[in-house]
Amino acid sequence: MNIGIDLGGSHIAIGVVNNKGLIQEKIEKRILAKEKQNIKNTIEEYIIKNVKEFMKKYEISKIGMAIPGTVNENTIIKSVNLNIENYNIVEALKKSIKMPISIKNDAKCAAIAENKYGCLKKYKRTLFLTLGTGIGGAVIIDNELLDTGNFPGCEFGHMIIEKNGKDCKCGKKGCFERYASMKILKDNIRKELGLDEKTRGQEIYDIIRNNNTSNINYEKIENTVDEFIENLAIGISNLINIFEPEAIGIGGSFVYFQEVLLNRLKAKILEGNLLFNDRKTINIETAILGNESGIIGAVI
């Protein structure tokens, strides 16, 4: 058994994974705004406590972590959504956990898992995007991640889709994830409806699903949802025009909204005059492993 940890911009999930890529047990928490004020302490306390509990119940061989942002063998070099730089997380955790610990970019972990076990396993040339607090990405060709040399690359969330647009935590303006991450969609809907940050995604999903003229709440957010779809379609079409993948996988919390967003996204890409090479269909697959793909990919 191995322990996979998915550290997101707004959550921490920890799971015990067997040698077939199946999660035996999982625990997770949301990271609230007040907890981000001392984010390193929040991360360390939660991981150490729960990993030790799992180690009492299972024979663990190693621990892998999926982390948003730029990482090397043991350090988070930069994670804009966690507001962390140059943080040797492996060293910090090993003070209390005497186990092999490895770290990788979260989107790449999810892509590796979906390529081996999930929605992309039947394709040879694919893109994978994680839509959550930010937008991460990976390119896989013949079961291998695209080699980008000394830099991790595939920072899809930080390609610019709006000149002189909204400020991004990375220091640039107009980045894709400032317009098309799931956090942006949820935050904008909460703002339009006067909801606080504790409003669960399920409630937001239900409002979008009930998209009829008698739904006053949906009328308030209809333009917000349309704008999100348009921005997401622009970003994905840019990637299609560059890589011409056989299929695109989408993970993160988008998976839980696929029923109300996926067909609209496909239609916008195909009908919005966005693609260089016209096509009648497009293969966009949602992550079969759901939000667990980061946990699984972290230990592959």
Task: Please specify the SSE layout and strand pairing.
Elements: E1 2-7, E2 11-17, E3 23-30, H1 39-57, E4 63-67, E5 70-71, E6 76-79, E7 84-87, H2 89-94, E8 101-105, H3 106-117, E9 125-131, E10 135-141, E11 144-145, H4 177-180, H5 182-193, H6 201-209, H7 216-243, E12 247-252, H8 258-271, E13 284-286, H9 293-297
Parallel strand pairs: 1-4, 4-8, 9-12, 12-13
Antiparallel strand pairs: 1-2, 2-3, 5-6, 6-7, 9-10, 10-11
Helix pairs in contact: 5-7, 7-8
Biggest sheet, spatial arrangement of strands: 3-2-1-4-8
Q: Please, what is the CATH homologous superfamily of the largest domain?
A: ATPase, nucleotide binding domain
One letter per element, helices H and strands E, the order comes to: EEEHEEEEHEHEEEHHHHEHEH
Proportion of strand residues:
15-25%
CATH topology of the largest domain: Nucleotidyltransferase, domain 5
Largest sheet descriptor: 5 strands, mixed
What is the tally of helical segments?
9
CATH class of the largest domain: Alpha Beta
CATH architecture of the largest domain, by name, is 2-Layer Sandwich
Rg calc:
19 Å
Category by helix and strand content: alpha/beta
Mean pLDDT: 91
Percent range for helical residues? 25-40%
Distance between the termini: 12 Å
Coarse morphology: globular
Please report the total strand number as a whole number: 13
Quaternary state of the chains? single chain
Count of folded domains? 2
